[in-house]
Amino acid sequence: MELLNQISEYLQQGDDEKVFELTGIAIKEGISPKEILDDGLLAGIGIIGKQFKNHEIFLPDVLLAAKAMQAGLNQIKPLLERDKIPGMGKIVLGTVKGDVHDIGKNLVGIMLKGAGYDVIDLGKDVASEQFVETAIIEKANVVGLSALLTTTMPVMKEIISMLKEKDPEGNIKTIIGGAPVTKNIADEYGADAYAFDAANAIDQIKLLI
Ligand code: B1M
């Protein structure tokens, strides 16, 4: 669809104002938030990822595209969250220490809130101790960890081990995700679950609680 292609194009150009405007128009035209997300925003950031990998663009381009992605996400966020049914469980969520990638984590948070979960989002570049302390103090059901770098992925293992020490009964479950993470890695790190995307995170958390 032309409008969604335009959203993807402007996102790749890093034009956050245009992405914000066109996402608003798409909503008014009745295009579903899922379509806007998949065929507009995620399509655009996916191309940016490939170009960056192939050294066709540079980090500042990726930063601008990420800002534009966030502008679009902000528009569809209320729609993704609107069917909230409270009381499903409490999730402590964040991107691990050393990692500032938060778009995927934010998406997981938005979808979880929309599915009725109480989400405590600690943000990005979060100290391992903060995940563990918050989970214990808040009596969380699940700790959700995101990592986008192969170098920060092992931090998730550290957090899972710390949590197992503080909560030997295993009342607090763990779920991990992010582009380099796989089911095998989740098993190796001792995580209770792995999710490949935001929708799958909800399915997995439903099984955990
Ligand atoms: Co960076 N970056 N980046 N980056 N960046 C990647 C991840 C990279 C794959 C690009 C590439 O080379 N192709 C590469 C990592 C290579 C590797 O480790 N193997 C990379 C690199 C190298 C870097 C820097 C080191 C670059 C540099 O400085 N030289 C640097 C690191 C900074 C740091 O963290 N310390 C860096 C910086 C940045 C920006 C700041 C410019 C920006 C991030 C802005 C932000 O997030 N606010 C950025 C971006 C945007 C990307 C790409 C292009 C896009 C990531 C993204 O947002 N995708 C990315 C390339 C790529 O992934 N294709 C890349 C969209 C998002 C919706 O998907 O995050 O995968 P994703 O989340 C998905 C699933 O993974 C899953 O659900 C989400 C939704 O479906 N998921 C979970 C995620 N978390 C989950 C948690 C769960 C469950 C599911 O449970 C709790």
CATH class of the largest domain: Alpha Beta
Bound molecules: CO-5-methoxybenzimidazolylcobamide
Q: Largest beta sheet: what is the strand line-up?
A: 2-1-3-4-5
Order of helices and strands: HHHHEHEHEHEHEH
Short characterization:
The protein has 9 helices and 5 strands, in the order H-H-H-H-E-H-E-H-E-H-E-H-E-H. The chain is of the alpha/beta class. The protein has a 5-stranded parallel sheet, sandwiched between helices.
Provide an overview of this structure.
- The N and C termini lie far apart (39 Å).
- Helix 5 (103-114) links the parallel strand 1 (90-95) and strand 2.
- The model has no long low-confidence stretch (mean pLDDT 93).
- The chain contains 9 helices and 5 strands.
- By secondary structure, the chain is of the alpha/beta class.
- The protein is 59% helix and 11% strand.
- A 5-stranded parallel beta sheet has the order 2-1-3-4-5, sandwiched between helices.
- The chain has helices at 2-13, 16-28, 33-53, 59-81, 103-114, 128-137, 153-166, 183-189, 198-208, and strands spanning 90-95, 118-121, 142-146, 173-177, 193-194.
- Helix 1 runs antiparallel to helix 2 (16-28) and helix 4 packs parallel to helix 5 (103-114).
- It has 2 domains: 2-82, Methionine synthase domain (Methyltransferase, Methionine Synthase (B12-binding Domains), Chain A, domain 1, Orthogonal Bundle), CATH 1.10.1240; 90-208, 3-Layer(aba) Sandwich (Rossmann fold), CATH 3.40.50.280.
- The structure holds CO-5-methoxybenzimidazolylcobamide (B1M).
- CO-5-methoxybenzimidazolylcobamide is lined by residues 42, 45, 48-49, 52-53, 59, 62-63, 66, 98-105, 107-108, 144-146, 148-150, 175-180, 195, 197-198, 201.
